[in-house]
Amino acid sequence: MIRRSWAQTASIEETLALWAASLREIKKRIRPLFNQDRVARNAGLFLEGLLGDEQRKTGWMRAEAAGDPGPWRQQAILGRRDWDADGLRDIVRDYVIEHLADDDAVLVIDETGFLKQGKASCGVARQYTGSAGKITNCQIGVFAAYVSRHGHAFIDRSLYLPKQWTDDPTRLKAAYVPPDTGFATEPKLATRMIARAIAVSVPFKRLRCRRYRTATTQSRQRLRARGQQRSCISILGQAAVGCRHGRRHRPDAACDRLETPVRRSRDQRTAAA
């Protein structure tokens, strides 16, 4: 992790050395996720490929950067090796918080689409994505990013599975999705990510969601239960505001309502007294 303050004060050589040291540290942290040394080594090469200069990170380009004759080794890591993806998520989150933690930080929740041609990719379907600005064949991912004065980085992710996927056990099995995976809306996925951040005491002052009003409402309740006196939760974008009784609310009005102090319960006030 390269903090913004480092990049501002260090020379190019020092910055590169910091990058190399940080990458070595990350490889050590993720090593327990893999049962064999060669798999861990290939995972490290995969990571280096993602940090490369190529604008498109295809399997063949990553393999060429790693010195492999083809993409099969790296494809095996992603699709055929048994390792804990959620464990890796937690390692990344903890590493980010160690370096970027700040009490005034912002937790940003948003979704994005990945355009696809076929039907085999997990979660792919004809659905709306802002990446294309229309309904098209794509995957939808919901992401959480941690933003502070020190820098920013992703700390969580969830893949949205439409009902045509969760209602089709054969399709789930073919994509190696656990059979007990149920349908969850994008706001529900966002709520789960916010709950995970709160559960491990990720420090943040603001929560910003572009679309998910339900997620922010439920998260206010969790923040209130945690005893946080002020929860500045903003809904960004006209899509988040929606319509009520045939009238469209102003986005700034919605922000004004949501950015009010969270009142403490009577029990919390009594305990504080």
Name the beta content range.
Answer: 15-25%
Radius of gyration: 21 Å
Helix content: 40-55%
| Low-pLDDT regions | 229-273
Mean of residue pLDDT? 78
Q: Give the distance, in angstroms, between the N- and C-terminal Cα atoms.
A: 42 Å
What shape does the CA trace take? Answer: globular
Q: How many β-strand stretches? A: 8
Largest sheet: 6 strands, mixed
What order do the SSEs take from the amino end to the carboxyl end, as H and E?
Answer: HHHHHHEEEEHHHEHEHEEHH
| Class derived from helix and strand content | alpha/beta
Number of helices: 13
What does this 3D model show about the protein?
There is one protein chain. The protein has helices at residues 4-9, 12-30, 37-50, 59-66, 72-79, 85-100, 163-166, 169-174, 186-199, 213-225, 238-241, 251-258, 266-272, and strands at 106-115, 125-129, 134-148, 151-160, 206-209, 232-235, 243-244, 247-248. The protein is an alpha/beta fold. Helix 3 packs across helix 4 (59-66) and helix 9 runs parallel beside helix 10. The protein is globular, with a radius of gyration of 21 Å.
Keywords:
273 residues; six-stranded mixed β-sheet; two-stranded antiparallel sheet; 13 helices; 8 strands; 19% strand; globular
Topology:
Elements (H helix, E strand, L loop, with lengths): L3 H6 L2 H19 L6 H14 L8 H8 L5 H8 L5 H16 L5 E10 L9 E5 L4 E15 L2 E10 L2 H4 L2 H6 L11 H14 L6 E4 L3 H13 L6 E4 L2 H4 L1 E2 L2 E2 L2 H8 L7 H7 L1
Parallel strand pairs: 1-5, 5-6
Antiparallel strand pairs: 1-3, 2-3, 3-4, 7-8
